[in-house]
Amino acid sequence: MNVVLQGVLIGAGLAAVLIFFEYTAIVREVAERSKRVAKKVDWDSNQISRMRGMMSFGALLPIGFAIGAWWVFG
């Protein structure tokens, strides 16, 4: 398999795992806050920006891994 393709696939897999864990952490925080105030709570601006940053990082991670794999192993 092409080295660049391997880098993209590894980067995409790692990005998906990181995004999943960040999402579950935010959902857990919202559930705890909702339980504490005893009503339904939505995501606040800090949590939205955290998720947006993680999505941006996750979009760029496969590209970075592809370039890194090409540079190191290519």
How many strand units?
Answer: 0
Q: Which spans of ≥5 residues are poorly predicted at pLDDT below 50?
A: none
Largest sheet: none
**Class computed from helices, strands and strand pairing:** mainly alpha
General form? rod-shaped
Determine the fraction of residues in helical runs and give it as a percent range. over 70%
Mean pLDDT: 95
Q: Supply the number of helical segments.
A: 2
How large a portion of the residues is in β-strands, by DSSP E?
under 5%
Whole-Å distance between the termini? 12 Å
H/E element order: HH
Radius of gyration: 17 Å
Total domains, how many? 1
General description of the model:
The protein has 74 residues and is mainly alpha-helical. It has one domain. Helices cover 86% and strands 0% of the residues. Helix 1 runs antiparallel to helix 2. The radius of gyration is 17 Å and the shape is rod-shaped. It starts with a helix and ends with a helix. The mean pLDDT is 95.
